[in-house]
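## retry 2 of 3
previous attempt timed out at serialization; input unchanged, resubmitting
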Amino acid sequence: MIRPCTNADILEMFDIINDSASAYRGVIPADRWHEPYMPLAELHDEIAAGVRFIGWEEEGRLLGVMGIQDVKDVTLIRHAYVRTFTRGKGLGGLLLKHLLAGTERPVLIGTWKAARWAIDFYIKNGFEEVDDETKTRLLHCYWTIPERQVETSTVLRQSEKLAAETVR
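## retry succeeded, writing output
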């Protein structure tokens, strides 16, 4: 069952994010990896900044989370994670489909260039990578991340919703 996450879910969300993000260890640049991948204070900051999370729950336990955030004239998909033991079972696709159904705005997703599995997941779900120049412009416009992360990230867009003027 998909449902909105609440403050009561914070510790479980923290656990899911950091369990799933272990896939980045040794893949993303070493200077961008830290333990935990997302500290609890950062999760609170993300929620305070307007990231709204939904979760997939089975038998009273969250198995995956995904966030959405409206920034300026676009919607960002943020922090898409499922528990390691549930990978490949379609939960991420269900969460993404649910979030996409709730917005009419152009949708962007940022992820690590080296996370090929994540890029492939988004491409399979109707997204396309933008070119490097557009990626840099979009990351500077819609995200607040360090320059090193801009260098080592990519952006995907849902092409049918992202009008040409949005990437200017």
